[in-house]
Amino acid sequence: MRMSLDIVGKNMIRVDALSKVTGKAIYPADVYMDNMLYGKTLRSKVPHAYITVNTKEAENIDGVIKIFTCKDVPTNEHGVVFKDHEVFCSKKVRRIGDPIAFVVATDIKTCDLALEKIKVNYEEIEGVFDPISAMKEDAPKVHEGNNIMYHYKLRKGDTEKGFESSYVIAENTYKTHMVDHAFLQPESGVSYIDEEGRVTVVVATQYPHYDREEIARALNISEDEIRIINASIGGAFGGREDISLQIHLALAAKEIKRPIKVVYSREESFISHSKRHPLIMKYKTGADKNGKLLAMEADIIGDTGAYASWATNVLRKAGVHATGPYYIPNVKVDSIAVYTNNPFAGAMRGFGATQPPIAYEQQMDILAEELGIDPITIRMKNMFKKGSETATGQILTESVPLEECLNKVLEDMDLNLDRKGAY
Amino acid sequence: MIEIQLTVNGKDYTVNIEEDKRLLDVLREDLGFTGVKEGCSEGECGACTVIMDGKTVNSCMVMGFQANGSNIVTIEGLEKDGQLHPIQQAFIDIGAVQCGYCTPGMILSAKALLDKNPNPTKEEIREGISGNLCRCTGYSKIVKAVEKARGYEDES
Ligand code: FES
Ligand code: FES
Q: Which of these CATH numbers, 3.10.20.30, 3.40.640.10, 3.40.50.10070, 3.40.50.2000, describes B2-76?
């Protein structure tokens, strides 16, 4: 029986469209409360150093209510998969932008003044800024233990045999760069104690439930003492999956018991949140005379910067997608995430599936060129169809309309070479 | 502190402000027009766009005192008698709104364009909104929405 669809295939009006075109939608920075204080974060100016922090002078400034540091946090850690972030750095900073202290004052200018007066003594240590050097035994360690924080292995068939029977082999290394989400609304939030005594944080977040969990853990209070209000979100694209200001705000509201507002500048937004993992992808792909793929090996190395965030999931996904939508009988993939002192990398539109096409699609073009066949033919010959087996052994039993899609593209390219209707 | 007078969405206001306060903050903090958004604070993104004496400005780049005596329109001023402005309606109908953070500025830029040139070409529309960044939509639907609203003055 086929269900009738009320939504799919129809144009629906967004529930929040009206409030957004009239300017009534409330983003966190649009919340103003009586008796409200402002907060600002002191961040590391160097990528790798031991630190000592002295807030004495800053605390004496008129209008400064309190300055929070690692000493004020019951459980000084957070992180979506591994708890490798500190709420405030205690001994060491691992990247430019690491949070060190949080000033709460009567107004923003006083916050700025206080930030200048906090003395941070940086004892700089050697850093590591590319993942290849970071993998070496004697590389500076970003955290305790090895910088290699994840290794995904995929093995199918026998690639050596596959290459032996190949007529052409393409071997190339591809690199992608870091990308910032650059969502249009920089991080902002307001915290207060609500009428039921709960620590309340108004924030634009992708994970209100995670935020609550992380705050509960850091502050050592129970989750039902915390309320996260997800305001309108001014874009996110993965960049609002990690904690930014949530714990700072919750901690301050709990202690001070007054509303506190934080608005990041665009610069602080860039410096503080995650990036798309830059990947180094070393590919070796072999095909027979007719362009049928026989073997592929990929070494993928992802720079996750100072923190893991979603590195395990992102690099696993990059590894799983390493063949692209092509059937290859013999596959060997090693996908590795490495700590460095760069900005940390995490979720960003595609979650590891975005980078490998740069590599595997160029491999296809290069093989086609060497074989003297056209790029479409080589793809048609190898693409997944219903019933195909992926490198991970999954049999694709459901919809696999790739051939249909490519045929349609070809058809439209022929018919509409002027790209009619395209913007 | 200095005193400035300005008209916002047809209403006169007198406010006492610090000399270094930006128009953006006067509108948001002193007058409560939070539909004016801040995205970059340096004149790049257009989220803070308002119409000042008929021309769009980035309100993050205008000092409060410079707005003394001016006539300003923010997104809150577009509805008339409970009726959406045709550009607002077109943004809803076409689906030109995603996160919505660029939307107020985008609509005001479109309005300033259509007020001057009621029948712009697609290129002129793209040019007209070129100072407004949108990170979500890819602009296609925004351009379509402005096309749909084009010529609304003939109809009304
Ligand atoms: S905030 Fe004014 S142009 Fe971006
Ligand atoms: S709709 Fe999100 S920035 Fe335009």
A: 3.10.20.30
For atom 4 of ligand 2, which residue has the closest CA? B134
Map out the domains of chain A with their CATH numbers: 28-124+188-262 (3.90.1170.50), 147-179+275-413 (3.30.365.10)
Give CA–CA dist A94/A336, Å, rounded: 20
Mark yes or no for CB contact B91/A21 under 8 Å: yes
Those residues whose C-beta lies under 8 Å from the C-beta of residue A224, and which sit 6 or more positions away, are A198
User: Residue A110 phi/psi, 5° resolution?
Assistant: -65, -40
Q: What is the mean pLDDT of residues B26-53?
A: 98
pTM, full prediction: 0.94
Q: Which chain B residues are within 8 Å of A265, Cβ to Cβ?
A: 41
E strand residue ranges, A243-292: 260-263, 275-276, 279-287
Q: Taking residues B87-99, report their average pLDDT.
A: 97
Q: How far apart are CA B134 and CA B116, in angstroms?
A: 23
Selection from A206, A187, A235, A185 nearest residue A310 by Cα: A206
- Residue at A381: amino acid letter: K
Identity (one letter) of the amino acid at A258?
R
User: Which chain B residue has its CA at the smallest distance from A11's CA?
Assistant: B95
How sure is the predictor about A423, in pLDDT bands with cuts at 50, 70 and 90?
A: very low
For ligand 2, is residue B96 a contact (CB within 6 Å)?
no
If pLDDT is split at 50, 70 and 90, which confidence band does B155 have? low
What number does the ligand 1 atom closest to the CA of B24 have?
2
Question: For chain B, which residues make up each domain, given as ranges?
Answer: 2-76, 86-149
The token pair at A407 is 């045929």
> pLDDT tens, A292-312?
999 999 999 999 999 999 999
ipTM exceeding 0.95, yes/no: yes
**Ligand 2 within 6 A of CB of B101:** yes
Q: What H or E segment, with its residue span, contains residue A387?
A: none
Instruction: Please list the residues that pair with A150 across neighbouring strands.
Output: A337
> Per-residue pLDDT for A418 more than 70?
no
For residues B140 and A422, what is the distance between their CA atoms, to the nearest angstrom? Answer: 9
Q: Give the count of Cβ contacts less than 8 A between chain A and B.
A: 107
A134 — phi, psi (to 5°)? -65, -25
* Whole-number Å distance between alpha carbons of B78 and A78: 44
State which fold the B86-149 domain adopts. DNA polymerase; domain 1 (1.10.150)
